Amino acid sequence: MEHNIYIYILVMAGVTYLIRALPLVLVKREITSPFIKSFLYYVPYATLAAMTFPAILDSTGSVLSAVCGFGTALLLSYMEKSLLTVSLCSCGVVFVVERLIL
Amino acid sequence: MIYKKNDARIITRGMKDGLPICLGYFAVSFAFGMLAVTSGLSVLQAVGLSLTNLTSAGQVAGVSLIQAGADYYEMALTQLIINLRYCLMSFSLSQKIDRKAPFFHRFFISYGITDEIFAVAASQKDKVGPGYIYGLISVAAPGWVLGTLCGAVAGNLMPASLVNALGIAIYGMFLAIIIPQAKSDKVILACVAGAMVLSALFEVLPGLKRVSAGFVIIIVTVVVAGTAAWLFPVKEPSGEDREHGT
Fold it and tell me: Could you give the CA distance from residue B177 to residue B211 in angstroms, rounded to a whole number?
């Protein structure tokens, strides 16, 4: 292979860092535009929802166990349990469901 | 906000909130470690990649490009596209960071802007100080790096049932962040539902299927958050204390 893996890693790290750092470093003043403020307010919810579904269905060994884990997470987070509780309980349900199937 | 005196407490709070991220990261990066080694990277390279990049989708794509022997510019461009969402988050965080904190912190905080760390920081009710984010990073990042190390070294020793179960951890955490807010705010609920439906369409519709995962996230975010902001602008908060999520 003619390319050096460490240079690949440096390229990746450099690009990724710049994307993260530039807005944070360059945007110093408080934004006043109601549209931009509202947009930024909704961004995390839209992003996380888009990342969660449908990707969650492929996150375990089978779609069935994933659906059960998904349901568990929805229910517990609706009950406003902590991040850790929701996370671990959905893992637990996936584990049990996969055991039952096999 | 007198964060000077409370620095230790704020960092500790960040570390505590970082714990679920750490566990989720461990699970996801464990799988990444296995993938990296089977794709031809050494254990050191896999760990170095995780330490310097701290991102899931970008690293997975990067490993496949390394394996394919792609050009460096192609690598740079792919990373740019997949990780462009961090640009939005960084922008959002620039409004959320406590302005009284010294500026140089922003260079270090930037390293740790991931989906999860951003989400937790953004969901705080008040402005966040650098200490809180350092707390999050100091617990979450080692989970990512150690998970990669363990996956790279011992991937085949762990039972598949356990690896599978851990795979859902990160998504459980995402839901725990967004659902409680969606309960009390109908617009957020619509954002969540709309974003899920839209990203599912990208997964199943023939024409949209070819769009890369990184781009799907960007498109869905811009469309959904943009529409919500256009139709339902957030009422100007009167005090600092109502400033959540901006």
Answer: 27
Distances (CA, A) of A39 to B73, B149, B188, B235, B245: 32, 38, 12, 12, 10
Task: Tell me whether A101 touches chain B (CB under 8 Å).
Answer: no
Overall pTM surpassing 0.90 (yes/no)? no
CB pairs under 8 A between A and B: 316
Q: Domain limits of chain A?
A: 31-101
DSSP letters for B62-122: HHHHHHHT--HHHHHHHHHHHTTHHHHHHHHHHHHB-TTS-TTHHHHHGGG--HHHHHHHH
Residue B242 has a pLDDT of 37
Q: Which residue among B66, B181, B233 places its CB closest to the CB of A38?
A: B233
Tokens of B40: 């031809």
CB within 8 Å: B221 and A46: yes
Q: Does A57 touch chain B (CB under 8 A)?
A: no
Task: Name the average pLDDT for chain A.
Answer: 89
Largest pairwise CA distance in chain A = 57
The two three-digit tokens of residue A14, written as one number: 């450099």
8-state DSSP, B168: T
